[in-house]
């Protein structure tokens, strides 16, 4: 039994770094996870951003704990994209 059994977590920036760590920890503790990340290089950001491969790896790591996961391309600056990720999560998991 984990601390998050039966819960669903929404994690932005989940393709790598702290977001990935949070997604994996939530999965380890029993939560299903919705992961979003921009997965595009933005011209205003001077360092390399996460890629689709990074997002896919986080999905794989969550699934390794036997948890369900949705990996979605979404930019937190876009309410429309976040709404779509939330809607996909609710359709799949019933709640967040």
Structure, explained:
- By secondary structure, the chain is of the alpha/beta class.
- Helix content is 41%, strand content 17%.
- It contains three helices and three strands.
- A three-stranded parallel sheet has the order 1-2-3, with helices on both faces.
- The two termini are 19 Å apart.
- The model has no long low-confidence stretch (mean pLDDT 97).
Keywords:
96 residues; alpha/beta; 3-stranded parallel beta sheet; 3 helices; 17% strand; globular
Apparent shape: globular
SSE string, helices as H and strands as E? EHEHEH
Please count the helical segments.
Answer: 3
Oligomer: single chain
Q: In angstroms, what is the radius of gyration?
A: 13 Å
Largest beta sheet, briefly?
3 strands, parallel
- Mean pLDDT over all positions: 97
Beta-strand level of the residues, as a percent range? 15-25%
Sequence of strands across the biggest β-sheet? 1-2-3
Q: Which consecutive residue ranges, at least 5 long each, have pLDDT under 50? A: none
* Helix proportion range: 40-55%
Distance from N terminus to C terminus (CA atoms, Å) equals 19 Å
């Amino acid at each position: 039994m984990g601390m998050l059994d039966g819960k669903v977590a929404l994690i932005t920036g989940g393709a790598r770094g702290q977001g990935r760590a949070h997604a994996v920890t939530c999965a380890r503790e029993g939560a299903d996870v919705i992961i979003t990340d921009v997965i595009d290089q933005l011209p205003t950001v001077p360092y390399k951003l996460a890629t689709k491969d990074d997002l896919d790896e986080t999905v794989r790591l969550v699934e390794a704990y036997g948890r369900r996961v949705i990996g979605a391309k979404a930019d937190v600056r876009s309410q429309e994209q976040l709404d779509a990720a939330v809607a996909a999560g609710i359709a799949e998991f019933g709640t967040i």
